[in-house]
Amino acid sequence: MRVLAVVLDRAHARFFDVGADATVELPSLASPAMRGGKFHSDRQGGPGWGEHAYQGRLREEERRHLTAVTERVAAFEREHPDADVLLAGPGTAAGALRRFLPPQLGERVIGTARLSPLEVTPAVVQRTATQLRQAHERAAQRALVAAVLEGLGTGRAETGVRAVLRALAQGQVRTLLVRADVRGAGFRCAGSGRLVLSAADCLGEGDPVAVPDIVSAAADEARRQDVSVTLIEDPDIAKPIDGLAALLRFSTRAGGPGP
After folding, report:
1. Residues 174 and 95 in one domain
2. Which neighbouring-strand residues pair with 229?
């Protein structure tokens, strides 16, 4: 796990590099800002150019601050392209930054939280990032399982070890879902290299070679093919999956939708 946590308000931003076991605070950012308080018009309460300029200056200062923070986030992502991003702040600060980020950075955001940059500690950031990362992963896994269930009706997904092994051998798998609680033996055909459930499946493809953990071997084969592999540990989320499931690159049904 690697997460860049950004904790900001209207004039300050603190950055934390969150790993699985430790959180390191990076150099912070302080942007010039107007003093707090309200504009007092000299036109007996009626809005005027002075108030308009005041509000415009506030918006410009916010834009400059968010731009500076975004540049820091972008620089971190260039160095660590696999890192996720957590945004936190009092009130609407985190939401404002999330809307300001360009799409490629916005896609890395795993969630927002309410924290103050003047009070937050690395320990609090570590705990918050861990909780949001876990919630984000569960939501992503639920979405994948839902996509598999929907894809079963269109030929764009498979579930069950035998069916998924067949799709994997044919290079059809786009995303592999693996239940963490499933283990079982299988075979690899010596001639073709194909993974199968039973020795009889190797007929004409060379001698069957025993594979103690066919599910783990399938995950390794998927990674070799540059297939995305998701391990699902939550039994409730994994319930619809029969050992293995896969989203396919193209429909297996004749006349079905294309890629």
Report:
1. no
2. 176
CATH number at residue 79: 3.30.420.60
pLDDT in tens, 169-184: 999 999 999 999 888 8
Q: Which domain holds residue 115?
A: 3-36+46-137
SS3 readout for 27-78: EEEECCCCCCCCCCCCCCCCCCHHHHHHHHHHHHHHHHHHHHHHHHHHHHHH
pLDDT at 154 over 60: yes
Asked if residues 186 and 197 have their Cβ atoms less than 8 Å apart, the reply is yes
Contact 28, 14 (CB under 8 A): yes
What rounded mean pLDDT belongs to the chain? 89
- Please say which residue of 137, 161, 191 terminates a domain: 137
Q: What pLDDT is stored for residue 182 in this prediction?
A: 86
